[in-house]
Amino acid sequence: MAVEVRIPTVFRRFTDGAPTESVEPGTLRDVIGELGSRYPNFEEQVLTDEGELHRFVNVYINDEDVRYLEKLETKVGDGDVVSLLPSVAGGLG
Amino acid sequence: MTELPDRVRLPRSLWERLVTHCAAERPNEACGVLGMQGPDVVEIFEMTNVESSPVRYRLDPKEQLAVYNRLHERGWDFASFHSHTRTEAYPSPTDVKEAREDVPYVIVSLAGDAPAVRAFRIVKEDWLDLTGEVQEVPVEVAG
Description:
The complex is a heterodimer of chains A (93) and B (143). Chain A contains 2 helices and 8 strands; from the N terminus they run βββααβββββ. A 5-stranded mixed sheet of chain A has the order 2-1-7-4-5, with helices on one face. Chain A has a two-stranded antiparallel sheet with strand order 3-6. The longest helix of chain A is centred in the middle third of the chain and has 11 residues, at 28-38. Chain A has a single domain, classed as Roll (Ubiquitin-like (UB roll)). Chain A is an alpha+beta fold and 93 residues long. By secondary structure, chain B is of the alpha/beta class. Chain B has a single domain (8-142), classed as 3-Layer(aba) Sandwich (Cytidine Deaminase, domain 2). The radius of gyration of chain B is 14 Å and the shape is globular. The N and C termini of chain B lie far apart (32 Å). At the A-B interface, β7 and β8 of A face β4, α2, β5 and α3 of B.
């Protein structure tokens, strides 16, 4: 078992089109860092210059929003699914 | 860039369901996701507009997660949809600014005598850009 990361459409240009990636367990920061080592420019899409999660991307581990857990220090274990969800919004105003 | 369909094929029955949902949400904007296989729309996920506004929409992230999980299980691609209750079916500056998925954006306009459904791709160099290039994706209503 490993951790499955679901990549949103807008980031797939940085993952050679891959919709999912399999990584080793660790903290969420480790998971994003591992993807960053595989794919240059990936990490800066998800994290701000200060190294925090970008406000326009919601991150869930299974069905839990990491902002209500330990954010980037949340533990991600074998079999967990990490979903990166860009906010979807707009309107005529 | 991700490969996107060069058209959106919408069965008549789903076109009617989409327009009916958008009409029912008036005066607020409606929003949701269309499940797609290639260019074919195969399902509509009517979702909550957490802004509850006639001029803004935002998907509920928890609901978005549940829908994306279903898309993943079924191996479907998707398009986003929302309604414009007072203006044409064309991306507003806010739509362009907030576009953060590389998928077709389907807009349902209820401003005219008859509903209009059009689709667009909003191409950005960087997903955080506030502007982008709007490219129309033809919508074909069939059946």
